[in-house]
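I keep forgetting this: the sequence line spells out the residues, with the fold written below as integer tokens. I include a record here:
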Amino acid sequence: MDSRNTGVGANFDQPLDRRLVDAYKWNVGTDELPMWVADMDFATAPVVQAALAERVAHGAFGYSDVPEAWRRSVADWWQRRHGLALEASELVFSTGVVAVLSSAVRALTNVHENVLVQPPVYNVFWNSVVNNGRHVVESPLSFDGTRWSIDWHDLEERLADPQTTMMIVCNPHNPTGTVWDRDELARIGELCERHGVTVVSDEIHCELVRPGKAHVPFASASETCRRISLTAASPSKAFNLAGLQSAYFFAADGRLRHRVERQLNTDECAEPNSFAIAATIAAYDEGAPWLDDLRAYLQRNKDEVGASLEAGNLGARMCPSDATYLCWLDCRPVTDDDERLCMHLRRQTGLVLSPGSQYGDAGRGFLRMNVGTRRELVRKGLERLSQGIRTFAR
């Protein structure tokens, strides 16, 4: 489908100058091309823009409450899109997924206990753990050149440590783009239950899976998974709404849910701003056609990156990916010093990428490239990447 003629107002090739609104991602040099921070350069869905315009027209922006309409909208979305039945009472609003992660760490673990992560993984996981006086324990993923996978022996060994009381699952996985299947998630749940470990599943990228590919919510993988976990999510990645600070979590276990909800309130992260609720309801109730067009456009961007690197014979290649708008580039044939390569690309070409080691030692030699932008800029980014790698002193 041509995303420029969708009937829902989508035009993903339309230039949008984000420098005009002080976008963090674009706070770079005039001649630099930022393809790093994980947000997109597209206007959000027209139905969301219309809902926000209506809210602005009201004119009053005092304190907001979380209405039942929001709970119904979120629950219906998860049922329709992911086949997960949620009770409205299981849903708790938050200003962000990271806020949920940090509050969960404080509420569900004790100081000096271990929280397990699977690098290379979203670097803020470390912050949510370490900043709260807990320890990060790592069970790195393995890469066979085709797919990132779990080292089950290592995972169980680390979960068996009595000091390990929480595991953060990134589902789908950022930055590798791995979509975990039902059997993998159920096995994680089984191991965590066996060793008394609570699971926090970060599913913020769950809407951005490859067209034709299904996201499996952790809570749907088994009854055990549902019972021992909480899931954090948001419309922010899929609909480019991060600045509205609208997220939530859900948990079937009432005691677990209550503890994290109370911590969110203590942390003052449980009240919506004037626009968060309206945007979420519009996105979930009416935004699906726009989102499907977006996913198709993003997949074509990712396919173009993979084909370009393959044809360019640069030594770098794109790892196979089924989710996110992030390309995970294996540059190890070029260098294992990803930070130096990143600095070289920025100095020599103005291309701003994220070094893989930022996501843990398992990411050394990789780069993360955000292609959530119009195709014209993706192609310019590929030109700069090619130029930079060819001039890189090995």
